[in-house]
Amino acid sequence: MSTDVMIYADELSKRFGNFRALDRIRFEVRRGEVVGFLGPNGAGKSTTMRILTCFISPTDGTAKIHGHDVFDEPLEVRRKVGYLPQRAPLYQDMLVWDYLRFVADMRGLDESTFKARMRKVVEVCGLAQVLGKDINTLSHGYRQRVGLGQALVHDPPILILDEPTSDLDPNEKAEVIRYIKEIGKERTVLLSTHNLAEVEAACARAIIISKGRIVADGPLDEIRARTGKIRYVLAVSEQTAERGKAPTATEVQSALRAIAGVRSVAELPTDEKAHGFELTGDTGGDLRSDLFRLVVSKGWTLLELRRDSQTLEDVFRDLTKGDERRDRKLGAPDDDDRDEREDKTETRRSESPKEAAVSGG
Ligand SMILES: Nc1ncnc2c1ncn2[C@@H]1O[C@H](COP(=O)(O)OP(=O)(O)OP(=O)(O)O)[C@@H](O)[C@H]1O
Ligand SMILES: [Mg+2]
Fold first, then answer.
1. In the chain, how many domains are there?
2. pTM beyond cutoff 0.90
3. Ligand with an atom nearest the CA of residue 345
Protein backbone atom coordinates (compact mmCIF):
# COMPACT_ATOMS: atom_id res chain seq x y z
CA MET A 1 0.00 0.00 0.00
CA SER A 2 1.51 3.33 -1.02
CA THR A 3 2.09 5.89 1.75
CA ASP A 4 -0.19 8.25 -0.15
CA VAL A 5 -3.20 6.02 0.46
CA MET A 6 -5.23 7.72 3.20
CA ILE A 7 -8.36 5.57 3.15
CA TYR A 8 -8.11 1.91 2.31
CA ALA A 9 -10.85 -0.70 2.18
CA ASP A 10 -10.21 -4.24 1.06
CA GLU A 11 -12.88 -6.92 0.72
CA LEU A 12 -14.90 -5.13 3.36
CA SER A 13 -18.18 -6.83 4.26
CA LYS A 14 -20.81 -6.14 6.87
CA ARG A 15 -23.74 -8.31 7.83
CA PHE A 16 -26.59 -7.37 10.13
CA GLY A 17 -28.03 -10.77 11.05
CA ASN A 18 -28.50 -12.42 7.66
CA PHE A 19 -28.71 -9.15 5.80
CA ARG A 20 -25.62 -8.29 3.81
CA ALA A 21 -25.24 -4.51 3.98
CA LEU A 22 -21.74 -4.48 2.44
CA ASP A 23 -20.40 -7.08 0.12
CA ARG A 24 -16.61 -7.22 -0.30
CA ILE A 25 -16.11 -3.59 -1.20
CA ARG A 26 -12.69 -2.40 -2.17
CA PHE A 27 -11.37 1.10 -2.77
CA GLU A 28 -8.56 3.51 -1.96
CA VAL A 29 -8.54 7.26 -1.51
CA ARG A 30 -5.25 9.13 -1.81
CA ARG A 31 -3.95 12.32 -0.29
CA GLY A 32 -5.41 15.37 -2.01
CA GLU A 33 -8.49 13.59 -3.32
CA VAL A 34 -12.08 14.68 -2.71
CA VAL A 35 -14.19 11.67 -3.51
CA GLY A 36 -17.97 11.67 -3.80
CA PHE A 37 -19.54 8.56 -2.26
CA LEU A 38 -22.85 8.01 -3.99
CA GLY A 39 -25.62 5.50 -3.85
CA PRO A 40 -29.38 5.19 -3.35
CA ASN A 41 -30.96 5.02 0.10
CA GLY A 42 -29.84 1.89 1.91
CA ALA A 43 -26.90 1.23 -0.43
CA GLY A 44 -24.34 1.05 2.39
CA LYS A 45 -22.70 4.49 2.40
CA SER A 46 -23.19 5.24 6.11
CA THR A 47 -22.29 1.66 7.03
CA THR A 48 -18.97 2.02 5.18
CA MET A 49 -18.27 5.35 6.85
CA ARG A 50 -19.10 3.97 10.29
CA ILE A 51 -16.62 1.15 9.77
CA LEU A 52 -13.92 3.55 8.56
CA THR A 53 -14.40 5.68 11.68
CA CYS A 54 -14.40 2.76 14.14
CA PHE A 55 -18.08 3.04 15.10
CA ILE A 56 -18.87 -0.49 13.99
CA SER A 57 -16.61 -3.34 13.07
CA PRO A 58 -16.69 -5.10 9.71
CA THR A 59 -17.79 -8.72 9.49
CA ASP A 60 -14.91 -9.35 7.10
CA GLY A 61 -12.13 -7.56 5.33
CA THR A 62 -9.69 -4.79 6.18
CA ALA A 63 -10.05 -1.04 6.56
CA LYS A 64 -7.16 1.34 7.18
CA ILE A 65 -6.94 5.06 7.76
CA HIS A 66 -3.57 6.71 7.22
CA GLY A 67 -2.11 3.21 7.30
CA HIS A 68 -3.69 2.36 10.67
CA ASP A 69 -6.04 -0.58 10.91
CA VAL A 70 -9.48 0.41 12.23
CA PHE A 71 -9.60 -2.71 14.32
CA ASP A 72 -6.07 -2.79 15.75
CA GLU A 73 -5.32 0.92 16.10
CA PRO A 74 -8.64 2.72 16.64
CA LEU A 75 -7.08 5.60 18.60
CA GLU A 76 -4.64 6.43 15.81
CA VAL A 77 -7.50 6.26 13.33
CA ARG A 78 -9.64 8.61 15.43
CA ARG A 79 -6.78 11.09 15.67
CA LYS A 80 -6.48 11.37 11.93
CA VAL A 81 -10.15 11.63 11.08
CA GLY A 82 -12.84 14.27 11.30
CA TYR A 83 -16.18 12.52 11.01
CA LEU A 84 -19.62 13.98 10.57
CA PRO A 85 -22.19 11.22 11.07
CA GLN A 86 -25.42 11.41 9.05
CA ARG A 87 -27.35 12.38 12.18
CA ALA A 88 -24.83 14.34 14.18
CA PRO A 89 -25.22 13.39 17.85
CA LEU A 90 -24.69 16.50 19.99
CA TYR A 91 -24.98 17.26 23.68
CA GLN A 92 -28.31 19.03 23.70
CA ASP A 93 -27.81 20.93 26.94
CA MET A 94 -24.45 22.45 26.08
CA LEU A 95 -23.76 25.84 24.56
CA VAL A 96 -22.33 25.61 21.07
CA TRP A 97 -19.03 27.21 22.14
CA ASP A 98 -18.71 24.91 25.18
CA TYR A 99 -19.46 21.84 23.11
CA LEU A 100 -16.79 22.70 20.55
CA ARG A 101 -14.31 23.44 23.32
CA PHE A 102 -15.15 20.09 24.93
CA VAL A 103 -14.47 18.32 21.62
CA ALA A 104 -11.21 20.28 21.21
CA ASP A 105 -10.18 19.38 24.79
CA MET A 106 -10.67 15.71 24.09
CA ARG A 107 -8.66 16.17 20.93
CA GLY A 108 -5.88 17.63 23.08
CA LEU A 109 -5.89 21.10 21.48
CA ASP A 110 -4.35 23.84 23.63
CA GLU A 111 -6.21 27.12 24.21
CA SER A 112 -4.44 29.16 21.54
CA THR A 113 -4.73 26.46 18.86
CA PHE A 114 -8.41 26.08 19.77
CA LYS A 115 -9.05 29.83 19.39
CA ALA A 116 -7.20 29.96 16.08
CA ARG A 117 -9.10 26.95 14.74
CA MET A 118 -12.42 28.39 15.95
CA ARG A 119 -11.92 31.44 13.74
CA LYS A 120 -11.82 29.16 10.70
CA VAL A 121 -14.62 26.87 11.92
CA VAL A 122 -16.92 29.83 12.63
CA GLU A 123 -16.18 31.27 9.20
CA VAL A 124 -16.74 28.05 7.29
CA CYS A 125 -19.71 26.75 9.25
CA GLY A 126 -21.38 30.13 9.74
CA LEU A 127 -21.63 29.76 13.51
CA ALA A 128 -20.98 33.33 14.72
CA GLN A 129 -24.62 34.00 15.67
CA VAL A 130 -25.15 30.79 17.65
CA LEU A 131 -21.95 30.30 19.66
CA GLY A 132 -23.68 31.39 22.86
CA LYS A 133 -26.86 29.38 22.31
CA ASP A 134 -27.99 26.08 23.78
CA ILE A 135 -27.71 23.31 21.20
CA ASN A 136 -31.28 22.17 21.88
CA THR A 137 -32.64 25.55 20.78
CA LEU A 138 -30.96 25.37 17.37
CA SER A 139 -32.74 24.71 14.09
CA HIS A 140 -31.97 21.54 12.15
CA GLY A 141 -29.55 23.21 9.76
CA TYR A 142 -27.62 24.93 12.57
CA ARG A 143 -27.23 21.63 14.39
CA GLN A 144 -25.72 20.23 11.23
CA ARG A 145 -23.36 23.21 11.12
CA VAL A 146 -22.25 22.47 14.70
CA GLY A 147 -21.77 18.81 13.76
CA LEU A 148 -19.58 19.88 10.88
CA GLY A 149 -17.71 22.22 13.21
CA GLN A 150 -16.79 19.34 15.55
CA ALA A 151 -15.48 17.38 12.56
CA LEU A 152 -13.19 20.26 11.52
CA VAL A 153 -12.05 21.68 14.85
CA HIS A 154 -8.78 19.70 15.06
CA ASP A 155 -7.94 20.31 11.39
CA PRO A 156 -7.73 16.60 10.55
CA PRO A 157 -5.89 15.32 7.46
CA ILE A 158 -8.84 13.08 6.58
CA LEU A 159 -12.49 14.05 6.55
CA ILE A 160 -15.34 11.59 6.34
CA LEU A 161 -18.57 13.47 5.91
CA ASP A 162 -21.93 11.71 5.71
CA GLU A 163 -24.34 13.98 3.86
CA PRO A 164 -22.83 17.15 5.33
CA THR A 165 -25.08 19.51 3.41
CA SER A 166 -28.45 17.73 3.53
CA ASP A 167 -30.17 20.18 5.89
CA LEU A 168 -28.30 23.35 4.96
CA ASP A 169 -29.76 26.32 3.14
CA PRO A 170 -28.41 27.04 -0.36
CA ASN A 171 -25.98 29.75 0.82
CA GLU A 172 -24.43 27.56 3.48
CA LYS A 173 -24.36 24.55 1.13
CA ALA A 174 -22.30 26.56 -1.33
CA GLU A 175 -19.95 27.75 1.43
CA VAL A 176 -19.36 24.22 2.75
CA ILE A 177 -18.74 22.86 -0.74
CA ARG A 178 -16.33 25.71 -1.46
CA TYR A 179 -14.43 24.88 1.74
CA ILE A 180 -14.36 21.15 1.05
CA LYS A 181 -12.87 21.92 -2.34
CA GLU A 182 -10.28 24.20 -0.78
CA ILE A 183 -9.13 21.79 1.94
CA GLY A 184 -9.28 18.92 -0.52
CA LYS A 185 -6.14 20.27 -2.16
CA GLU A 186 -3.96 18.91 0.66
CA ARG A 187 -6.32 16.71 2.67
CA THR A 188 -8.44 13.75 1.85
CA VAL A 189 -12.20 13.93 1.84
CA LEU A 190 -14.79 11.19 1.47
CA LEU A 191 -18.15 12.85 1.06
CA SER A 192 -21.50 11.14 0.77
CA THR A 193 -24.36 13.10 -0.72
CA HIS A 194 -27.49 12.70 -2.83
CA ASN A 195 -26.82 16.02 -4.48
CA LEU A 196 -25.07 15.20 -7.73
CA ALA A 197 -24.48 18.86 -8.52
CA GLU A 198 -22.34 19.03 -5.37
CA VAL A 199 -20.30 16.09 -6.54
CA GLU A 200 -19.77 17.81 -9.89
CA ALA A 201 -18.70 20.96 -8.04
CA ALA A 202 -16.34 19.47 -5.45
CA CYS A 203 -15.13 16.07 -6.57
CA ALA A 204 -12.91 14.86 -9.38
CA ARG A 205 -13.76 11.26 -8.60
CA ALA A 206 -16.82 9.35 -7.43
CA ILE A 207 -17.53 5.92 -6.05
CA ILE A 208 -21.05 4.64 -6.65
CA ILE A 209 -22.34 1.91 -4.38
CA SER A 210 -25.54 -0.04 -4.88
CA LYS A 211 -26.92 -2.80 -2.66
CA GLY A 212 -23.63 -3.05 -0.78
CA ARG A 213 -21.45 -3.38 -3.89
CA ILE A 214 -19.33 -0.87 -5.72
CA VAL A 215 -20.75 -0.42 -9.21
CA ALA A 216 -18.52 2.43 -10.40
CA ASP A 217 -15.30 4.05 -9.23
CA GLY A 218 -13.33 6.58 -11.22
CA PRO A 219 -12.96 10.12 -12.51
CA LEU A 220 -16.33 11.77 -13.16
CA ASP A 221 -15.65 11.94 -16.92
CA GLU A 222 -15.11 8.20 -17.06
CA ILE A 223 -18.21 7.54 -15.00
CA ARG A 224 -20.28 9.78 -17.23
CA ALA A 225 -19.06 7.85 -20.26
CA ARG A 226 -20.16 4.57 -18.62
CA THR A 227 -23.55 4.33 -20.32
CA GLY A 228 -21.84 4.35 -23.70
CA LYS A 229 -24.37 6.82 -25.09
CA ILE A 230 -24.30 10.39 -26.31
CA ARG A 231 -27.42 12.48 -26.42
CA TYR A 232 -28.32 14.91 -29.21
CA VAL A 233 -31.10 17.45 -29.36
CA LEU A 234 -32.32 18.59 -32.75
CA ALA A 235 -35.12 20.95 -33.72
CA VAL A 236 -36.32 21.94 -37.20
CA SER A 237 -38.90 24.55 -38.11
CA GLU A 238 -42.47 23.44 -38.73
CA GLN A 239 -42.93 26.29 -41.20
CA THR A 240 -42.70 25.85 -44.97
CA ALA A 241 -39.06 25.88 -46.00
CA GLU A 242 -37.72 27.91 -48.95
CA ARG A 243 -38.06 24.93 -51.20
CA GLY A 244 -40.53 22.12 -50.65
CA LYS A 245 -43.36 21.88 -48.14
CA ALA A 246 -43.45 22.03 -44.35
CA PRO A 247 -42.10 18.79 -42.82
CA THR A 248 -44.30 16.65 -40.58
CA ALA A 249 -42.95 15.26 -37.31
CA THR A 250 -43.23 11.68 -38.61
CA GLU A 251 -41.28 12.55 -41.72
CA VAL A 252 -38.43 14.11 -39.72
CA GLN A 253 -38.42 11.25 -37.25
CA SER A 254 -38.10 8.52 -39.88
CA ALA A 255 -35.37 10.44 -41.71
CA LEU A 256 -33.43 10.72 -38.43
CA ARG A 257 -33.87 7.01 -37.71
CA ALA A 258 -32.37 6.19 -41.11
CA ILE A 259 -29.03 7.82 -40.25
CA ALA A 260 -26.35 5.24 -39.48
CA GLY A 261 -25.25 5.39 -35.83
CA VAL A 262 -28.55 6.73 -34.47
CA ARG A 263 -29.66 4.40 -31.68
CA SER A 264 -32.97 5.98 -30.71
CA VAL A 265 -35.15 8.94 -31.58
CA ALA A 266 -37.84 10.39 -29.32
CA GLU A 267 -40.00 13.40 -29.97
CA LEU A 268 -39.68 16.31 -27.52
CA PRO A 269 -42.54 18.58 -26.54
CA THR A 270 -42.20 21.90 -28.41
CA ASP A 271 -44.36 24.86 -29.41
CA GLU A 272 -46.16 24.94 -32.77
CA LYS A 273 -43.13 26.48 -34.49
CA ALA A 274 -40.76 23.53 -34.19
CA HIS A 275 -40.41 19.74 -34.28
CA GLY A 276 -37.94 18.74 -31.58
CA PHE A 277 -36.22 15.36 -31.08
CA GLU A 278 -33.89 13.70 -28.66
CA LEU A 279 -31.53 11.18 -30.22
CA THR A 280 -28.92 8.87 -28.80
CA GLY A 281 -25.77 7.67 -30.51
CA ASP A 282 -22.68 5.79 -29.40
CA THR A 283 -19.95 7.50 -27.39
CA GLY A 284 -16.91 8.20 -29.46
CA GLY A 285 -19.03 9.06 -32.49
CA ASP A 286 -20.28 12.47 -33.49
CA LEU A 287 -23.45 12.55 -35.56
CA ARG A 288 -23.75 16.30 -35.86
CA SER A 289 -22.45 16.61 -39.43
CA ASP A 290 -24.72 13.80 -40.65
CA LEU A 291 -27.67 15.46 -38.93
CA PHE A 292 -26.80 18.83 -40.41
CA ARG A 293 -26.40 17.37 -43.94
CA LEU A 294 -29.78 15.64 -43.67
CA VAL A 295 -31.49 18.90 -42.76
CA VAL A 296 -29.81 20.72 -45.67
CA SER A 297 -30.61 18.00 -48.20
CA LYS A 298 -34.29 18.08 -47.20
CA GLY A 299 -34.40 21.89 -47.35
CA TRP A 300 -35.59 22.10 -43.70
CA THR A 301 -34.73 25.01 -41.45
CA LEU A 302 -32.46 24.00 -38.54
CA LEU A 303 -33.38 25.71 -35.25
CA GLU A 304 -31.21 23.77 -32.81
CA LEU A 305 -28.53 21.07 -32.83
CA ARG A 306 -26.72 20.06 -29.65
CA ARG A 307 -24.57 17.14 -28.46
CA ASP A 308 -24.42 16.37 -24.71
CA SER A 309 -22.60 13.64 -22.89
CA GLN A 310 -24.76 11.77 -20.39
CA THR A 311 -25.11 13.54 -17.07
CA LEU A 312 -23.88 12.01 -13.83
CA GLU A 313 -27.52 11.66 -12.88
CA ASP A 314 -28.29 9.55 -15.98
CA VAL A 315 -25.41 7.23 -15.14
CA PHE A 316 -26.35 7.06 -11.46
CA ARG A 317 -29.89 6.03 -12.38
CA ASP A 318 -28.66 3.52 -14.92
CA LEU A 319 -26.29 1.85 -12.47
CA THR A 320 -28.64 1.73 -9.50
CA LYS A 321 -31.94 0.83 -11.17
CA GLY A 322 -32.13 -2.49 -9.29
CA ASP A 323 -32.47 -0.79 -5.90
CA GLU A 324 -35.24 1.39 -7.22
CA ARG A 325 -37.23 -1.55 -8.59
CA ARG A 326 -36.83 -3.47 -5.34
CA ASP A 327 -38.16 -0.51 -3.37
CA ARG A 328 -41.29 -0.15 -5.47
CA LYS A 329 -42.36 -3.79 -5.62
CA LEU A 330 -44.71 -5.09 -2.96
CA GLY A 331 -44.08 -8.76 -2.24
CA ALA A 332 -41.64 -11.15 -0.65
CA PRO A 333 -38.46 -9.45 0.44
CA ASP A 334 -35.08 -10.66 -0.84
CA ASP A 335 -33.69 -13.66 0.98
CA ASP A 336 -31.06 -11.41 2.37
CA ASP A 337 -33.59 -8.99 3.79
CA ARG A 338 -35.63 -11.62 5.56
CA ASP A 339 -33.48 -11.86 8.63
CA GLU A 340 -32.57 -8.22 8.75
CA ARG A 341 -32.43 -7.21 12.36
CA GLU A 342 -31.07 -4.41 14.39
CA ASP A 343 -27.66 -4.89 15.87
CA LYS A 344 -28.62 -3.31 19.16
CA THR A 345 -25.14 -2.95 20.59
CA GLU A 346 -23.85 -1.12 17.60
CA THR A 347 -26.81 1.17 17.30
CA ARG A 348 -26.49 2.16 20.91
CA ARG A 349 -22.80 2.86 20.48
CA SER A 350 -23.27 5.04 17.47
CA GLU A 351 -25.86 7.18 19.17
CA SER A 352 -23.78 8.16 22.16
CA PRO A 353 -22.71 11.81 21.78
CA LYS A 354 -19.59 11.25 23.83
CA GLU A 355 -18.43 8.48 21.52
CA ALA A 356 -19.15 10.65 18.53
CA ALA A 357 -17.14 13.52 19.93
CA VAL A 358 -14.21 11.25 20.72
CA SER A 359 -14.35 9.43 17.45
CA GLY A 360 -15.69 11.98 15.05
CA GLY A 361 -14.86 15.39 16.36
N1 LIG B 1 -27.72 -1.48 12.82
C2 LIG B 1 -28.33 -1.99 11.77
N3 LIG B 1 -29.11 -3.09 11.86
C4 LIG B 1 -29.72 -3.64 10.78
N5 LIG B 1 -29.61 -3.16 9.53
C6 LIG B 1 -28.86 -2.06 9.37
C7 LIG B 1 -28.18 -1.42 10.45
N8 LIG B 1 -27.51 -0.35 9.99
C9 LIG B 1 -27.75 -0.33 8.64
N10 LIG B 1 -28.56 -1.35 8.28
C11 LIG B 1 -29.02 -1.66 6.92
O12 LIG B 1 -27.91 -1.65 6.04
C13 LIG B 1 -28.27 -1.10 4.78
C14 LIG B 1 -27.32 0.04 4.45
O15 LIG B 1 -27.61 1.12 5.29
P16 LIG B 1 -26.82 2.50 5.22
O17 LIG B 1 -27.30 3.33 6.35
O18 LIG B 1 -25.38 2.20 5.12
O19 LIG B 1 -27.35 3.07 3.83
P20 LIG B 1 -27.00 4.47 3.14
O21 LIG B 1 -26.35 4.16 1.83
O22 LIG B 1 -26.24 5.33 4.08
O23 LIG B 1 -28.44 5.05 2.86
P24 LIG B 1 -29.03 6.56 2.99
O25 LIG B 1 -28.76 7.22 1.66
O26 LIG B 1 -30.48 6.32 3.16
O27 LIG B 1 -28.38 7.23 4.15
C28 LIG B 1 -29.72 -0.66 4.91
O29 LIG B 1 -30.53 -1.67 4.36
C30 LIG B 1 -29.92 -0.55 6.41
O31 LIG B 1 -31.26 -0.80 6.76
MG1 LIG C 1 -26.63 7.05 5.00
1. 3
2. no
3. 1
